[in-house]
Amino acid sequence: MSPARKALPPDFSPRDFRVALGMFATGVTIVTARTASGELAGLTASSFNSVSLDPPLVLWSLARAAGSMAAFSNGQHYAINVLAADQQALAERFAARDVDRWQGVEFVEGFSGAPLLKGCVASFECFNRSQYTEGDHVIFVGEVERCTRRAHASPLLYHGGRFYTEHPLQDSQADPTAPQPTDGRFVGSYLGYLLGQANHAVYRDFENAITAQGLTHIAWRVLAVLHDAALAPGEPATQSPGVAIGQLAHDVLAKQPTVTKLVQRMAEEGLVALHADPADQRRTLVTATPTGQAAASALIAQARQQETTLLARWSASEAEAFKRHLQKLASGQ
Ligand SMILES: Cc1cc2nc3c(=O)[nH]c(=O)nc-3n(C[C@H](O)[C@H](O)[C@H](O)COP(=O)(O)O)c2cc1C
């Protein structure tokens, strides 16, 4: 029989242990959750680390005595927000007691409801997969359902009980995985590829919302165009004359025969109405019915909400500039 395996008692003081641990430099996170009763929970944690790539797992540990233990141990989801170099004050605030940690903190609700803090360099939205009590802490293993990162942003660093706000690399080099214009790689730096990937990222979640309304992607685009046409200046929605099929095909990026068939089907489903153009009886004009308008309005609200989440890490002026560039590109200017 092999001898019982047991650790030897420590030959160092708790202080020595702390100081030795402090030699391990880390980033700083704020782990957040929204409890079932709707309250916000969040604390500063540097115990975050990666566990597995497939499936994507991360861990962090929480003191058993922590006030937020119930919120995290009972909840199904939480978000790990990796702080940026300019967020030291936030790290201090979310480690402090007897303060309102959330006062004036800008965040958006993540995919599963956990708050995503504005200005962070990365976020990991986790399913609360497992918990292990070890010593005076509980190790939380989270299965990452969504993750984002901000390119060219410096993380806040922590080591030896101090924060470091200056990244050793220049800001522009702080994202080691971002393809550099001169490194010769094509995939990942080519505009067409990037736009395709970005389009995929934007529509990945929204696709479900479209399907939930019983619509196809192209039918959604038709309703969105009709929604905007109804808002044309000077024309109250009810008096919109409608959009000609040729124009609709142009606006939804589809061929005219495809759109002709589609709007006939949508008319049978009660989503659109077809009228002959009074100025030219051979032309068909399309308008959204109240049912179509309601479907469009619901989806537009969801699209706006999702857009806010996607752009949350950027400043308002960065987001606006990005959209302006895309508009220019789209219009061929
Ligand atoms: C840089 C830094 C890192 C921290 N990391 C952790 C951690 O990983 N786990 C933990 O339980 N507490 C950690 N703390 C302490 C908590 O943030 C602090 O105890 C907080 O008040 C706990 O909040 P709560 O009691 O509301 O749960 C850290 C504090 C700082 C400043």
Which structural traits does this protein have?
3-stranded antiparallel sheet; 333 residues; alpha+beta; binds flavin mononucleotide; 9 helices; 15 strands; Arc Repressor Mutant, subunit A
Task: Explain the overall architecture.
34% of the residues lie in helices and 26% in strands. It contains 9 helices and 15 strands. It has 2 domains: 14-173, Pnp Oxidase, Chain A (Roll), CATH 2.30.110; 183-333, Arc Repressor Mutant, subunit A (Orthogonal Bundle). The protein is elongated. It has a 7-stranded antiparallel β-sheet. The N and C termini lie far apart (80 Å). With 333 residues, the chain is α+β, with helices and mostly antiparallel strands. The structure holds flavin mononucleotide (FMN). Flavin mononucleotide is lined by residues 28, 43-47, 60-63, 66-68, 91, 95, 97, 158.
